[in-house]
């Protein structure tokens, strides 16, 4: 499977909330970073996706612009869901970047506007 197919496999599994299939795309030593879940090791990455998929309510995901260049790749994805702690609707736009090792995702970095996300998920500060 080439790296582009690997990204498509990962996000197609995410659309189904199939965390087990998602983590099959990861290298055993994967690392992850985003503004909410910072610097996760491989065990923490797997636990995060498990938790997020199990708790996802009203979840919809789309992805596009999958790009691969050698051992790096990227895509744009959009998630819409009700945040589990508040029930508030979140519509988040995320830019993902990947590095690959041994045919699997070795480093996964998601970038999004944390301030915008927190206003949707938690509401405006009182």
Structural class: alpha+beta
Strand order of the largest sheet: 1-5-4-3-2
Task: Please bin the fraction of helical residues.
Answer: 25-40%
Report the count of strand segments: 5
What Rg do the Cα atoms give? 14 Å
Describe, in short, the structure shown.
By secondary structure, the protein is α+β, with helices and mostly antiparallel strands.
Structure characterization notes:
The protein has 126 residues and is of the alpha+beta class. It is 33% helix and 42% strand. The longest helix has 14 residues. A 5-stranded mixed β-sheet has the order 1-5-4-3-2. The mean pLDDT is 95. The N and C termini lie far apart (50 Å). It has 4 helices and 5 strands; from the N terminus they run ααβαββββα.
Strands, helices and their partners?
Elements: H1 3-15, H2 19-23, E1 26-33, H3 42-55, E2 57-69, E3 72-82, E4 89-101, E5 104-111, H4 114-122
Parallel strand pairs: 1-5
Antiparallel strand pairs: 2-3, 3-4, 4-5
Question: What attributes does this structure have?
Answer:
single chain; 126 residues; 42% strand
């Amino acid at each position: 499977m080439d790296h582009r197919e690997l990204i498509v496999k990962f996000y197609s599994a995410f659309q189904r909330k199939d965390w087990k299939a998602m983590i099959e795309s990861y290298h055993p030593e994967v690392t992850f970073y985003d503004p909410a879940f910072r610097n996760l090791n491989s065990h923490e990455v797997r636990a995060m996706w498990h938790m997020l998929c199990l708790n996802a309510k009203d979840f919809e995901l789309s992805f596009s612009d999958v790009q691969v260049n050698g051992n790096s790749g990227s895509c744009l994805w959009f998630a819409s869901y009700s945040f589990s702690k508040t029930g508030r609707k979140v519509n988040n736009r995320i830019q993902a970047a990947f590095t690959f090792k041994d045919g699997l995702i070795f480093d996964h970095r998601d970038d999004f506007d944390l301030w915008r996300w927190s206003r949707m998920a938690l509401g405006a500060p009182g």
